[in-house]
């Protein structure tokens, strides 16, 4: 669908320093992205501007300088650390005589490399199709009804129009399949809600250590690497927490500064695990000097996907890379955990995370002391099944005295299920 140059692995990187804070990007992050994509950066060109130029994004002189660098280094792709318009990409390609990619195109390429599941591949393809639909440039006219005679009449549309029609059809097909996946996920979430199993979702900037932490506390074997966007497909595992019982932990795709809207839309089904969570573990790489800015970026994306109001527990990860920082739990004025300092790589502080998780999720727990007569032996069996007994004894009348702790939802269910109701056996709250 393209009359464009083929991209290769030898890249010239272009970074523009803008005076406007909202337009600024991080050059070190671009280099990480390029490295994650498996591309070799042969040269980095930087410039400063107040605003992008309409034709080339950079000035015409800088465009010529980029073209000279491409020729000198025998590069086959130019990667901009910014979003380019389709016309800017084409104008730059005509000057540089090689493929030009912007930041969004690079991120999409990395996503395409990382997608492993059927759902992940569909989501990436959808994002790519939406991105390239504005970049179709082939305008062949040989299919138009311009000539008479047998065998020369076309369907009346240019090749560009045909390409757009095929793209629209493919996008609709992918959306239908993703809707099916979304319905399946929704069904799973509903069944967890019915069982009153809390969901904890890992969120954070890309490469903050979410998958490593996920593997450490669940003994899972999710792919984890020191690269951007190592995780694309959400993975769910069951946790057993003391005083809380089972909980579901979800590992999700990492966020990044100025996350492309095509990706946010395509990964709607994945991000819904975050939207529906009872608690968010916001994983932060505290060894990164700019971690406060990345935290703000993550919170902006959470607001964008309407998950900004969900309770957060901040995980200050990678303390093994810092001097004189010990694992600890920080609490607010009410004594509720708000931060846990740990290292997912070494396992330092992960026990503290279990404690903090228990405290955060145990706010919905109830504790009672019950006196149950021998005639209610069926209730004793039910309490054993729920694994909620913390202490038990017998009084002088032969009644069973038991201390129980359980989710309030389980208590309410038993209240409705039993003829006499549990409240009649309570001797102490």
UniProtKB/TrEMBL annotation:
The entry's localization annotation reads: Cytoplasm
The record's section on CDD domains has: HflX (cd01878)
Give the protein name, as stated in the record. Answer: GTPase HflX
Q: Which domain of life is it from?
A: Bacteria
* GO molecular function terms attached to this record: hydrolase activity
Task: Please describe what this protein does.
Answer: GTPase that associates with the 50S ribosomal subunit and may have a role during protein synthesis or ribosome biogenesis.
Q: Which UniProt keywords apply?
A: Coiled coil, Cytoplasm, GTP-binding, Hydrolase, Magnesium, Metal-binding, Nucleotide-binding
The UniProt entry, under InterPro entries, shows: EFG_III/V (IPR035647), G_HFLX_dom (IPR030394), GTP-bd (IPR006073), GTP-bd_M (IPR032305), GTPase_HflX (IPR016496), GTPase_HflX_N (IPR025121), GTPase_HflX_N_sf (IPR042108), HflX_C (IPR045498)
Subunit comment for this entry?
Monomer. Associates with the 50S ribosomal subunit.
Gene designation? hflX
What region holds the Hflx-type G domain? 198-365
Q: Which residues form the signal peptide?
A: none
Q: Which Pfam families match?
A: GTP-bdg_M (PF16360), GTP-bdg_N (PF13167), HflX_C (PF19275), MMR_HSR1 (PF01926)
Protein family per UniProt: Belongs to the TRAFAC class OBG-HflX-like GTPase superfamily. HflX GTPase family.
Which residues, by range, are in coiled-coil regions?
A: 164-191
